[in-house]
Write a structure and sequence with these properties.
Helix content is 52%, strand content 11%. It is built from seven helices and five strands. α1 runs parallel beside α3, α3 packs antiparallel against α7 and α6 runs antiparallel to α7. The C terminus is likely disordered.
Length: 231
Amino acid sequence: MHDARAAARIDETMERASEALAATDYFKAESLCLRALDMAHHAGDFERMARICLPLQEARRQKRLLAIDAGSVFVVSRPEDVPRRLETGRYLVQPPMIGADARALREAADRQRVPALVLCREPATKAGLWPIVAVGPQTIRAKVPPPLDPLAPDAAWFEMAAEALGDAAIARLKPDDPPHWRIDDLLEFLDAHPDHEKLHQRLEEACRAAVGLAEPILPRRRNIVDDPFGF
């Protein structure tokens, strides 16, 4: 059985998250959902983890829509390209800046409560595609066609690239792995790329699959982690 006090803390945190979501305070809702998700994960309470996924997904969805709807786009090739005061909008980080810079920019936007959809591209391939990268405990990459206007990628391109990045993460899941391992992978993918709704849905599915199952005896097989500080 799960610790009753831990369960009560999780439920109380999610009540506050629901109130924040209803009040359209999406940053607070996201923060509280993440806190509750972490508590539930440490408690092995997969049923509560599954229930947290939807409000977390919704808070992040609303933040992403605010960033897209703002219409502003910033192409960042050097630190000086970042607005002194971050603005709501879309940000494309590109060489010589790298994935770790994009992550730092996204985290700064969250601290300042500025809705921002941040993507990072690496140097174009010989085929002319743009590798898009997100870094975290695991690094994710996807190759996409460049936008028609590289200096001002439109909202449709940002949404396509963000979707491709999350789909690439899902493709790396091993269906035969115990759900506990898939949960760990999905949490790490979401840490790197929180702007993908299907990653949240896959996490919910894995959490529900783990309910009532014993922890795997064998240690988790980790994927090879790419260098987040290089191309």
